[in-house]
Records
---
Amino acid sequence: MKIIKLNKNLIEKLKKKAFKSKLKRSRICAHKSDKDKIHEMFVCLHNDTYVAPHFHKNKTESYHIIEGKVDIYFFNKKGKVKKKILLNAKSKNQNFYLRLGPNIFHTLVPKTKYVIFHEVTDGPFNKKENKFSQMEIFKKKRFKL
């Protein structure tokens, strides 16, 4: 039996690991393997990270913010921003949870030094199903909003 618990000490370790990592992010996987039908992760993004615009072919994805704030941007196929949604762990009036359907181009942009969230998506993991933007706007430079 695998039991996963998360506490403030683990969150601080996630932050330190994200800060030291090349990509400025870290995660704890609650699922057992890439072959599991459900993937649950606790993710930390440092505000210097870059999450390339992407979509997940035929998979849903949800984010439940535990700490911090993050903007999630949604794009059309030509790379135009169609919508932005702020997720905020502490606000009474703002959203702290979001669920995406499949095939929606999106990216995450941290608005605080760190954002910690619980991510859930369909498994099994298949790298070929994650589609990163091939749009010229994203090839030429790092996406900044």
Note: Residues 97 and 133 are 24 Å apart (CA to CA).
---
Amino acid sequence: MTLYMRVSRDEYELPEIVTDTIQEMAEKSGTNINCIRSHISHRKAGRIKKDRFIRVEVEEEDEQDSDLPYMWEEL
């Protein structure tokens, strides 16, 4: 799954807006879609210093395949 985020301009780059699509990001941030695409591509090249838009690939995990221990065990 792909997520689009606008992150803070400081060294921590904390997420300010997180969406599933570029269209959603454009609507929530008030930025043109083409500007967001440009920010994402120029960020990879290291030329962006303003609002930072990033694309993040997230692996989806099935609940059955989870490595988490069971919360309740019968004795």
Note: The mean pLDDT is 80.
---
Amino acid sequence: MRKRVGTLCISMTLLLCTAGCGSNPDAAPERTIRFSWWGGESRHQATAEAVRAFEAQHPDIRVQTEYGAWNGWEEAAAAALYAGTEPDVMQINQNWLRDYQSDGSGFLDLNAYSSIIDLSQYDPAVLEMCTEDGALRCIPISETGRVFFWNETTFAAAGIPVPDSFASLCKAGSIFQETLGDSYYPLALGWYDRMLFTVYLLQCRYGRDWVTNGALQYSEAEIASALETVDMLEKTHVIPPLKQITGGGADSFDKDENWITGRYAGIYEWDSSAGKFIDSLEEGQTLAVGAYFTDIGQYHGGFSKIAQSFAISKHTADPAACAELISFLVSDAEAVRLLGTERGIPLNQKAYDICDTAGLLGDISAAASRRMHDWVGFRIDPDFERAALKGTGGVYEDVFTGLSYGDYSVSQAAERLYTGIQAALAGEQP
């Protein structure tokens, strides 16, 4: 069950070998396109298999695949987009449409390829989220939100059930420390996880969108109250300090020995990422989808977003081949069964029906997705994931690293977060 993920941006070429290849003068000329994505080991394996199946059905198209872990991926993709050397087909996040081309024009309008990609299989409201100035810049794969995942084995060893309330989570820190030792924590949150958890806390308490019409809906004092809670969790041994997490040397928890061995017993992660976290656990450990906490406030905090999308570069020499690949990945029966819920529950209705019939909607990813959809009432603001905020060295990392390392007080961290977001929303450098 324990797996290792390949190095970021490992690139491999998948070659299709057929009888008589290169000897048939009537054979269609080979067309080559590049396809990139990020994810965990299970997503890599499933997607590579789907690509091989596509090549078998389209022997004239060769697909060069490029994939790796998320850490550093966006920065590398941004550099390629700015240089015009990006792959033909890309798995993207929604913020890329604005961050790297202000009007999304770096990606083709997929309305022009509706004869290849069946757009009728999507809710028009979902497609609208992928549309800039009337142009459909990407095909949405799934919708996702953050949920709690708990290692039931570790909690059992501590003699307590997995948390069903915020109060029980807060009590678990000292229990873990006393019964299991200083290296065990009920929950692990990286710096971006802490930002998302902060929004969750605030929306549970106040019930407001994070941003409305380009304006932040929370005051600096309200933000400070949430940061005080995050700081309290670290000081009471509920979450490990960021210095300890960074010192582990892993770029994501599924590759962190503390998660793999159960010393970190909980995470707050995208429901669509469940597969890589359960696959990375050592044998004998079980993972459960946790409940959202009703004792934080009267509202349902946290937001959902388009998990990932597929887009076609404006620089591609073969847009039709790219569209064929996307259509195959999101709706072909063989591809859908191979991919399952690796990228979440499909938004494509045909793919959803295939997964349902094949019994693929009963795994932990599907359970996490249902839990998220039953709870979450907010949608992400398009600017929330702007590179200046979310990127390496951006405002979020600065705030939560500074708070954890003791470089910022709670009030200083709140001021930095508040002013940084305001600047980004105004189009200024945070």
Note: The radius of gyration is 22 Å.
---
Amino acid sequence: MSNEIIILGNFGNSDNSALQKDFQSQELLDIAKNNFNNVKISFVNYNNEDYQQIVEKCKDAKVIIPQGKYELLTDLCNELKSLKLVQTISAGTEWIDKPQLKEMGIKVSNNGGANAVAVAEHAIGLMFAVNRKLDIQIDSAKNGTWMDGVEGDRDEFQTLAGKTVGIIGLGRIGSRVAKRLYGWECKIIYHDTQVFDKNYEKECNAKKVSLVELLENSDVITLHVPYDRLTRHLISQEELDLMKKSAILINTCRGGVVDENALIKTLESKKIRAAGLDVTEIEPIEENNPLLNLNNVIITPHLATRAKESEVNAMHNVLANASRVIEGKEPEWIVEPV
């Protein structure tokens, strides 16, 4: 019986020694060696391999861990009779055809919230940076204009203390945002389609409200939902029009959750105060995107997860879940089709 885990990636070089120099690959190998003796890891490079060669190399796999988005993943999975799980290193699985894989009897799991702390911290960092125009302050100091280069009236510089923060999605990341901001003397409200028990809400110091109530009453709105057909353009012109003129919008989940054209229009007309974005609808962001020229927007390049702890935690969770499958157990952190 095979116990093989395939790391499927675009490594740029088919030489196995070169593959193992890749950071994530080496991390997986080290963690597997020290913690999971029941797994055998093999690398398959789809960058310069013939498709049939890839099928042959993966034929005994029980678990595939894709690094990057392999366009033929669904076709490949259909050919692998031993495959039980596609396990992502990331939290997002929107690029994977989960309905098709489910029909094949193959489950899809994400990283089990391994990056939740890093993303929560990044979201709060964006809130703080936007509220105090830190990007403009830093640029002014570096450019030698000191205070003279920092423009804006008094209302454009605010503290987080005393503000109402509306969290859309109180899961692994949203709950951590809530717990941290309570210590910053913020009032926390949230909206989620999932029903949480009262103890969970109490731990988060958060009160559940309708989406409309959240949009109308929040000083800061922060998004922490998965991207699927139900959340695409969850924040559109209608929702933006409900927000306070003084509100700021934070998005560290997926760009498609926000209608970007509507957001640009709203920011240009200053119908909301500002936005802090780690994600955009097209990535990398296009050079002519109007968001880049607005002084009430801070953008980071989809690196909210980037922290040593996140990557190590993700590697451990990925291998722990793969090990469960090798042992004939059910995987955790399954992402169901929506």
Note: Residues 116-299 form a domain with the Rossmann fold fold (CATH 3.40.50.720).
